[in-house]
What we know:
Elements: H1 22-51
Amino acid sequence: MGTNRGRHEPLTVSWELETIGGEEGAALARRQADVMLEVLAWIVEQRRKQAGCTAPEQG
């Protein structure tokens, strides 16, 4: 138990936030929502591939 082989240092993350209002902010929010839907669909697809599923579920 005395070794840390295979372990990595904790990930350090930093970010800056900028708020945008009006039509520009609304357009950005729509784009972000579209991107999140694409990411979630990709995650579902990858999990199905890992599980051996070939057809998407019908909802």
